[in-house]
Amino acid sequence: MDFSYTEEQKMLRKMVREFAENELAPDARERDREERFPDAQVKKMGELGFLGIYVDPKWGGGGMDMISYCIMMEELSRVDASAGVVASVNNSLICAGLEKFGTEAQKEKYLRPLAKGEKLGAFCLSEPSTGSDASALKTTAVLKGDKYIINGAKNFITNGTKSQVYLVFATLDVNSSYKGVRCFIIERDTPGFTIGKKEKKLGIRSSDTCSLNFDQCAIPAENLLGERDDGFSIALTVLDGGRIGIASQALGIASGAFDAAVKYAKEREQFGKPISSFQAIQFMLAEMEIKIEAARLLIYKSASLRDAGQNYSIASARAKLFASETAMFCADKAVQIHGGYGYIKDYPVERFLRDAKITEIYEGTSEIQKLVVARDVLVS
Ligand code: COS
Question: Whose CA is nearest to atom 26 of ligand 1?
C-alpha cells in the first residue's frame, strides 16, 4: 500500500489548480448568479485533455489513471463545482461508456471527438417518473427495418442543452422491467429529438440541466450501444464509475470550503484575537480536515480497484456517500465560521453549501448508496 502521489499526479494537480484559479475562479460567482454555462472554460478544458482524461490515447484520450481523474475533479470542483460536473459526465458517463461498450466504428465516430473535447456528451437515464428505480423507465424503442423509433421524455439531464452526443436509455418492452432496457447513441440534430425546459436550480447553477423529448425519433440500428449487453447493466456499470467522479466533485467542494474557512478564521478578529485561536473554531476545522482526508482515501480506494480491473461497485457507493456528506458538513461549517459573512454572496462559502447538496442526490441518492452497501453486507 503506497499513499504517495506519482510525479505525474503532482504535476497534474498543480496544472489543474492553476487552470481553476486563473480561468474558473474570476467569474464563478457571476456565472452562478446569472446561471451562465462556462462555454469558454469548457472549450479550454477540452483542449487541455480534461474531458477524456482516462480514455486510451488510441481514441484521443489522456491515458491517465483513475487517481489522476479524481485529482482533476477535486481541483476543478474546489473552485467551481459546475465546471466539475461537466467534466465528470463527459469523462465517466459518456467516454467511459463508449470506450467499454462501443464498437470500433462507434468509438471512431463518437468517442474520439468526445475524448478530445471537440464534442460534449449527455447521459439520459432519468425520466419525470423514474429516478432511483431506473429500470422502470417509460421511454420506448421499437425496431422498424434498420431504424429504432424512440418515443418518450428524459429529465434532469446534465449538459442537456450543450451536448452533441446523447446516451439515451429506452425500453424495448415496458413490461419487461430491466431486461428490455437498451442504450442508444443519439445525435443532437436527429429529427424528432427536441430540447425541453432548462431547469433553475439551488446549486451548480452555471451547469446545464434540462429535459429532453423524443417524438417518433428514428435512429440508425447501428447506434445501439453494447449489442450483447443489456442497457440496464450498461447504465449501472457506467454509474459505478460516475460515482467516483461525483465523490471527487464533493471532495473538491469540501476542500474549497475548508480552505476558505481556514483563511477566514486566521483573518477575522473577535474579542481582540483571530477567531482561529478559539477552540470552538479549531474543533470545527479539525473535524473538517479529518472527514476530507477520510473521503479522499475512500475515493482513491475505489479508483485503485477500478484501475486494477477489480469490482468497485461497493467501494464507489461508499466513497460517494461519505464524500457527499463530507461536502455538506464542510460547507455548512465553513458558513458557520464565516458567521454573517458566510450567509451573503461576497464570500464563496454560501455557493459551496448550495453546490454540495446535489452530490447527495444525483448519480444515485445517498439512500441508494446505502442500499448498495447494505445488500453487500447482507449477502457476504
Ligand atoms: N453493474 C452492472 N450491473 C448491475 C449492477 C452494477 N453495479 N448492479 C446490478 N446490476 C445488474 C444485476 O446483475 C441484474 O442483472 P442480471 O439479472 O442479468 O444479473 C440487474 O442489473 C438488476 O439488478 P437488481 O435486481 O439488483 O436491480 P434493482 O432494480 O434492484 O436496482 C439499484 C439496483 C437500486 C442499485 C439501481 O437501480 C440503482 O443504482 N438505482 C439508482 C439509479 C441512479 O443512480 N439514478 C441516477 C441517474 S443519473 S443522475
Answer: 372
Active site residues: 363
- Closest to 213 in 3D by CA, of 229, 197, 201: 197
* Domain 232-379 part of CATH 1.20.140.10: yes
Task: Write the residue with the smallest CA distance to atom 8 of ligand 1.
Answer: 236
pLDDT digits (tens, 9 = 90+) for 247-284: 999 999 999 999 999 999 999 999 999 999 999 999 99
Domain 7-120 in CATH: superfamily?
Acyl-CoA dehydrogenase/oxidase, N-terminal domain (1.10.540.10)
Indicate where the chain has its CATH 1.20.140.10 domain(s). 232-379
CATH number of 122-228: 2.40.110.10
Q: Which amino acid type is present at position 240?
A: D
Residue 232 CB less than 6 A away from ligand 1: yes
pLDDT tops 90 at residue 118 = yes
The reply to whether ligand 1 has any atom less than 6 angstroms from the CB of 362 is yes
Taking the alpha carbons of 360, 92, 183, 190 in that order, is the dihedral positive or negative?
A: positive
For ligand 1, atom 1, name the residue with the nearest CA.
Answer: 237
Q: Is the CB of 341 under 6 A from ligand 1?
A: no
* Cα–Cα distance for residue pair 377/140, rounded to 1 Å: 35
